[in-house]
Amino acid sequence: MRLEQLMELTELLGIELPIVQAPMAVVAVAQGSAMAIAVSNAGGLGSLPCAMLTADGLRKELESIKTQTNKPLNVNFFCHAVPDADAERESSWRVALAPYYRQYGIDPAGIPTGPGRAPFSGEFADVLEEYQPAVVSFHFGLPPAHLLARVKSWRSKIFSSATTVEEALWLEAHGVDAIIAQGLEAGGHRGMFLSDDLTTQVGTFALLPQIVRVVKLPVVAAGGIADAQGIAAAMALGAAGVQIGTAYLLCPEATISGIHRAALKSEAARHTALTNLFTGRPARGIMNRVMRELGPINSHAPAFPLATSAIAPLRAKAEAEGSGDFSPLWSGQNAIGCKEVPAAQLTRELAGGH
Amino acid sequence: MRLEQLMELTELLGIELPIVQAPMAVVAVAQGSAMAIAVSNAGGLGSLPCAMLTADGLRKELESIKTQTNKPLNVNFFCHAVPDADAERESSWRVALAPYYRQYGIDPAGIPTGPGRAPFSGEFADVLEEYQPAVVSFHFGLPPAHLLARVKSWRSKIFSSATTVEEALWLEAHGVDAIIAQGLEAGGHRGMFLSDDLTTQVGTFALLPQIVRVVKLPVVAAGGIADAQGIAAAMALGAAGVQIGTAYLLCPEATISGIHRAALKSEAARHTALTNLFTGRPARGIMNRVMRELGPINSHAPAFPLATSAIAPLRAKAEAEGSGDFSPLWSGQNAIGCKEVPAAQLTRELAGGH
């Protein structure tokens, strides 16, 4: 029955390999169209992270992609509700950061506030309609029904992440075509959307088979999968495919900083934590100074995505000095699959074709 | 190379199946010699939890086991340092519990204090020396060197749990024969001993391959493994064997309460958390009222194992009314493998022989 589901995913998408390259948006993005194109051309499903793009930027990327691949591709959006600014919380957060502002000679009054990441919108849908990508994936649930209906109208397949059995059942009931079972090991933002209680979050070994058992859709396993052995393990647990992010971060197509690369290559990568300091929502990154000193989860951090602004100038100043003390060093709990090889080669190696 | 390690474990122990039944001590014990005997006779490695036994109790169990199996068996001990009583912390904890004491008409002054669980000691070693079990496993690191040397002198194999790469390297350097890679999904007590920072804890999918990569010893995978597919997945990730606990908890040989059984069979089992409320150390159990109301991790809870005393009478009163509100409902994050079948049958089914 599970082997059948594997067929379903590759057939559903018309791709050769059951490997989805995870969309990774950092600042501006950890990877852009170059990586997505390379992975799709290698037979996997490349993904373009769009949470930090404008509609114009999205059009530019999709136009560029069109000239470089005709293979199926995934465009990924966040679909959070944008919170109202909370002056009191913002101010208490800036008090918490004050010693760091002083250290770096930053005037907090000069820091702009702003959302940092935009949710999926009608404007994005207008652009997508022109290009009709094979897959549109969402993080933090699904967009409003009318927007989802638009995407479905031109037959893009809909993927979204579930971090619990309840979320998987909810996504199935709301019409997705495949479910990404995002285990606790995964790097970057937790896709959780029915609860904000971190104790509900489950490791891949436990989450994947529980979701496979209750849904009829193909389930894509994510979190901790780093190599061909990891893919074999996920398939043994019933996955129809896998989504791999961290392993791609040392590829030349990844646009992360040298600081981030160095951290991924070091033993520091063994210790990650979920942190809300960088965006306001829990996301997994390598432990660094600000996470240690303020606690990786701090209740003063503004709501997602508003926390992004206050920490940005600290990050910029520290990075200029070669320090990742204030950078989101996104990584899953298993960085041993990271290789400094082109994304196409990594994709083939992951698929066992090396 | 990994297949070779699988051979090593079964050969190391002279057992047929690479399955270790996890030792599970509840109150007094979740399972005693009956389950261990059944699993060992079925070809796996049965385990006797000894943390809540006296030396006399241990002798009685081992004597009984001797008449029922000559197969290899594991006896498991905790090896924590017993903390000094801290009157202030004890008292602030009893303040936190006061509303519950009032609800159940319990006089806090009448509650005895006491350790609850005893670490491995010379007295236990005296008993073991008579029986020389095939395997002696430890949780929370290893006992003092002179005690470890005694156990090794009669050639019992030493197992201990690692929850991080650092702990695995430490255990290898200190002479264990096999390492149990305890992923975050696992039920019961985290074996962590080099750090008490819960963010260091890693899911099985990430922990297992990282440990396999750096140690030369056989690695037994634990956490989230519930069925034959889970075992196949763990083997794909390089495990030499697996340790399975939760799946055995509905076997007739398990001595857990009807309340605990009912919780494991219900959807409540989908939500577990690490909690220090019941013993003082983080251990995974099904979320219940006291965990929700006091937070699963509460800094007022006395140090391990001293927290056991204060909650015991609440548990007794609540259970008498059919409630698990104050019970440690130990479970891993994946309870789908629980079956109400004899432990020998479950062992064979896990091994794929059904």
Give a quick rundown of the structure.
The structure is a homodimer of 354-residue chains. By secondary structure, chain A is of the alpha/beta class.
Structural notes for this entry:
The structure is a homodimer of 354-residue chains. Chain A has a domain at 2-80 and 117-246 and 341-350: TIM Barrel, CATH 3.20.20.70. Chain A has helices at residues 2-13, 33-41, 55-66, 87-103, 122-131, 145-153, 165-173, 204-214, 228-236, 258-265, 289-294, 307-320, 343-350, and strands at 19-21, 46-49, 73-78, 135-139, 157-162, 178-182, 188-189, 219-222, 241-244, 272-275, 283-286. In chain A, helix 3 links the parallel strand 2 and strand 3. With 354 residues, the first copy, chain A, is α/β, with parallel strands linked by helices. The longest helix of chain A is centred in the N-terminal third of the chain and has 17 residues, at 87-103.
Q: Quote the CATH topology of the domain at 2-80 and 117-246 and 341-350 in chain A.
A: TIM Barrel
Taken in chain order, the helices and strands of chain A follow as HEHEHEHHEHEHEEHEHEHEEHHH
Number of helical segments with 4 or more residues of chain A: 13
User: How big is the Rg of chain A?
Assistant: 19 Å
Q: What is the first-to-last residue Cα distance of chain A?
A: 28 Å
Helix content of chain A: 25-40%
- DSSP, total strands of chain A: 11
Topology:
The structure is a homodimer of 354-residue chains.
Chain A: H1 2-13, E1 19-21, H2 33-41, E2 46-49, H3 55-66, E3 73-78, H4 87-103, H5 122-131, E4 135-139, H6 145-153, E5 157-162, H7 165-173, E6 178-182, E7 188-189, H8 204-214, E8 219-222, H9 228-236, E9 241-244, H10 258-265, E10 272-275, E11 283-286, H11 289-294, H12 307-320, H13 343-350
